[in-house]
């Protein structure tokens, strides 16, 4: 799907429309920054990239090709990552890989699979108490609280909270694996 | 990787980042990771964001939710 279907509402200042756009765009922006993972905090760059995209969207001029705003976001992200790499006075591991990443087009959007969503939700519902509490706290905080605060709210030590997050994702991966769902290997690591 | 490294990766893989007006704010523990740990944190974060999006009614990860919160804070609904 061309994510520019949301463009008119985004330009009109509708954060909800920007949310719909981010649902498709965020994984592709993140993937485009993979080469930088050893030298900069990609999560911080992804968040700043998405914020800057929202800020410049009203001035965006489509070029007639699909996913114009996404392509612009990928450029914003790469430029930000390069600046940040220079600021950190480091070099990415593989300069050729970085060049390739800079030239690459963003990958096409994949449609969320309703069956997969249901399987994940059902596996989440089977999680035991503490791991479920820890995972739900992470989800509810939506990146707004650090793990220390979340642990305190749940009356857990930080390490206990983190061990419960680990257990939650490993159990989810195990549950999904039993259902034949192909998952990211890192989820069960 | 040691158990301590694994817990560090688990922390850095979250979408939490301190709020800042002017500059990129890294996760405070990101600097404690070596290169291999940072790559693992990236991969873990990517896997978690996909999981979070699948569990969210609007298909948004905690990264997207954090960005929306910053937008709504800066531009409150009228």
Structure keywords:
heterodimer, A: 189 residues, mainly alpha, 63% helix, globular, B: 78 residues, 3 helices, flat
Structure description:
Chain A is an all-alpha fold and 189 residues long. Chain A contains 9 helices and no strands. Chain A has helices at residues 7-11, 15-32, 42-56, 68-87, 95-103, 114-125, 129-141, 147-153, 158-178. In chain A, α7 packs across α9. The longest helix of chain A is centred in the last third of the chain and has 21 residues, at 158-178. Chain A starts with 6 loop residues before the first helix and ends in an 11-residue tail after the last helix. Chain B starts with a helix and ends with a helix. The relative contact order of chain B is 0.15.
- Low-confidence segments of chain B: none
Q: Using DSSP, what is the number of strands of chain A? A: 0
Mean pLDDT of chain A: 89
Strand content of chain B: under 5%
Please give the radius of gyration of chain A in angstroms. 19 Å
How many separate helices of chain A?
Answer: 9
Assembly status: heterodimer
**Strands of chain B, count:** 0
The biggest sheet of chain B, with number of strands, parallel, antiparallel or mixed sense and barrel status, is: none
The total count of helices of chain B amounts to 3
Query: Separation of termini of chain A?
Result: 32 Å
User: How would the global form of chain B be characterised?
Assistant: flat
Can you give me a brief rundown of this structure?
Chain A is an all-alpha fold and 189 residues long. In chain A, 63% of the residues lie in helices and 0% in strands.
Q: Layout of helices and strands, plus pairs?
A:
The complex is a heterodimer of chains A (189) and B (78).
Chain A: H1 7-11, H2 15-32, H3 42-56, H4 68-87, H5 95-103, H6 114-125, H7 129-141, H8 147-153, H9 158-178
Chain B: H1 3-12, H2 35-55, H3 62-74
Helix pairs in contact in B: 1-2
């Amino acid at each position: 799907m061309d994510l520019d279907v949301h463009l008119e509402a985004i330009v009109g200042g509708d954060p909800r429309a920007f949310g719909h756009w981010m649902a498709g765009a965020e994984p592709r922006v993140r993937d485009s920054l993979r080469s930088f993972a050893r030298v900069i905090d990609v999560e911080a760059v992804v968040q700043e990239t998405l914020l800057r995209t929202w800020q410049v969207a009203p001035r965006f001029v489509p070029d007639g090709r699909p996913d114009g705003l996404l392509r612009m976001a990928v450029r914003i992200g790469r430029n930000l990552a390069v600046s940040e790499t220079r600021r950190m006075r480091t070099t990415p591991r593989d300069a050729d890989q970085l060049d390739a990443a800079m030239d690459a087009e963003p990958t096409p959007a994949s449609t969320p699979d309703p069956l997969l969503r249901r399987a994940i939700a059902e596996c989440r519902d089977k999680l035991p108490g503490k791991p479920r509490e820890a995972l739900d706290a992470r989800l509810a905080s939506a990146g707004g609280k650090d793990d220390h605060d979340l642990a305190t709210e749940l009356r857990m030590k930080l390490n206990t909270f983190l061990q419960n997050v680990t257990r939650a994702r490993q159990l989810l991966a195990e549950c999904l694996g039993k259902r034949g769902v192909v998952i990211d290997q890192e989820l069960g690591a | 990787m040691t158990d301590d490294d694994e817990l560090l990766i688990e922390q850095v893989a979250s979408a939490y980042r301190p709020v800042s007006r002017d500059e990129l704010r890294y996760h405070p523990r990101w600097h404690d990771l070596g290169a291999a740990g940072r790559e693992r944190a990236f991969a873990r974060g990517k896997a978690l964001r996909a999981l979070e999006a699948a569990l969210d009614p609007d298909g948004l990860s905690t990264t997207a939710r954090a960005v929306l919160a910053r937008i709504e804070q800066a531009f409150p609904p009228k």
